[in-house]
Specification:
five-stranded antiparallel β-sheet, 3 helices, globular, 421 residues, mainly beta, 31 strands
Length: 421
């Protein structure tokens, strides 16, 4: 990742010397979060803009760099217990060169890791990079090296490799102007030009079953901007019944697919968010009442709960009073009570939100109040702009902070936490 712990140190120093009563470090934290989110959003947008482009082929890659090796167990450590402090584990994979750049979990047990010897922030592309994948099937207790084709080590001027995970067997590495795809857990790879990503890659960038928002043809084949996007499916193409909302270039959009295939699409224009829902995989749509001030749509893994929040990690403003709206019937009910320094929010099952703060706090929120979980807290000086939160399909929580990932397995607020780095 890009930032170091020094960012937090400088933020605290700025707060101690600034003549203000604001909580420490908020201005710097806001700037760091905005910069990081915009860079990451730009990278994903660039990849998405190249999706579903013109005809092309894939070819099998043989002669990968090395043979498969058995999983390597991590050094012995206690097992995490619900409600206890996180158990720390280092990801050590013999034969893998470089540093851990990305870690992507599929569920509580399965994850993929990307290692790279090159600095992702180096604008002058190195010519001697070495990249490897690794995967775990036991929650990070052991790891197996996945040798990549030699083309994975090609220079990447102006960009960095990006790991796109579909499930525990299918993963795509976007690198050097191509997609390297494995359908079988790393046993084999195929190579695809970025103008012809296969459905598995489209699913990694879209919803769980392959729905995407993208520009229509002919721009779909060029990566150029368009006046209005459209909803497509990776295999079925353009949906005949398009969502009844503005999909123009100025609208901020989220597309979410819940368990059971229900589609949720939110659009923010000005100060208002509108959500449309499809219960039949895009054959028909119903529109919910617009909500002023809402910025993000959250759906629980089981699909039972839908929320809107005013929190915007791209444009972090800690002084704002954050609001929450819960879906009740076909209307939204307003709540308050999120901590003032809320940075990220995600929905878990059971009518709860998991919340992280700008100073490393972690807790759970319900309409009845906020419950802090001090055992998971990260020291404020160690909080970087490279933060994030994700709730996986099985309800597992993944908290990202720089090059450390804290994984919470279980249900409710009493979870077994493991910190991987």
């Amino acid at each position: 990742m890009r930032e170091t712990h020094l960012d937090g140190v400088f933020a605290d120093f700025e707060a101690r010397t600034a003549p203000t009563f604001r909580p420490p470090g908020l201005a710097a934290t806001g700037r760091r979060v905005r910069d990081r989110r915009r860079r990451r959003r730009g990278l994903l947008a660039g990849l998405a803009a190249l999706l579903l482009a013109g005809p092309g082929g894939a070819y099998a890659l043989a002669g990968r760099d090395g043979d498969d090796v058995p999983p390597t167990p991590a050094p012995a450590s206690p097992s995490p217990s619900p409600g206890g402090p996180p158990v720390s584990r280092r990801i050590v994979v013999p034969g893998v060169a470089g540093e851990l750049r990305e870690l992507r979990f599929v569920d509580a047990r399965h994850a993929w890791a990307l290692f790279d010897t090159c600095d992702p922030d180096d604008d002058l592309a190195s010519t001697d990079c070495r990249r490897d994948l690794a995967r775990t099937e036991d929650g990070g207790a052991s790891w197996r090296r996945i040798p990549l084709p030699g083309t994975a080590n090609d220079p990447t001027p102006g960009s960095r490799p990006y790991l796109l995970v579909t499930d525990d067997q299918q993963v795509t590495l976007a690198v050097a102007g191509r997609f390297l795809v494995t359908p079988d857990g790393g046993t084999s790879f195929t190579e695809h030009p970025m103008t012809d990503p296969p459905p598995v890659t489209q699913r990694a960038l879209g919803t769980r079953s392959g729905f995407l928002l993208t520009c229509p043809a002919p721009n779909r084949f060029t990566g150029r901007a368009c006046d209005r996007q459209e909803l497509i499916h990776a295999k079925r193409g353009r949906l005949p019944a398009q969502p009844p909302v503005d999909l123009g270039p100025t609208a901020d959009r989220q597309l979410v697919e819940g368990r059971g295939g229900r589609l949720w699409l939110s659009v923010v224009e000005g100060d208002r968010m509108t959500v449309v829902v499809s219960d039949d995989q895009g054959l028909s749509w119903r529109k919910l009442p617009p909500v002023p001030g809402a910025r993000r749509l959250l759906v629980s893994p089981n699909g039972a709960d839908a929320w809107l929040v005013s929190v915007d990690a791209v444009d972090f403003q800690a002084s704002a009073t954050e609001r929450v709206w819960s879906l009740e019937g076909d209307g939204w009910r307003t709540h308050v009570g999120l901590p003032d320094n809320t940075l990220h929010v995600a929905a878990v099952d059971g009518g709860r939100l998991v919340v992280t703060g700008a100073y490393g706090t972690v807790g759970f929120w319900t309409p009845a109040g906020y419950q802090d979980r001090p055992e998971v807290r990260v020291p404020s000086w160690a909080v970087s702009q490279e933060t994030g939160i994700e709730v996986l399909r099985d309800g597992t929580i993944v908290l990202e902070n720089q090059r450390s990932w804290t994984v919470g397995v279980g249900t409710g607020v009493e979870r077994a936490w493991t910190r991987l780095s």
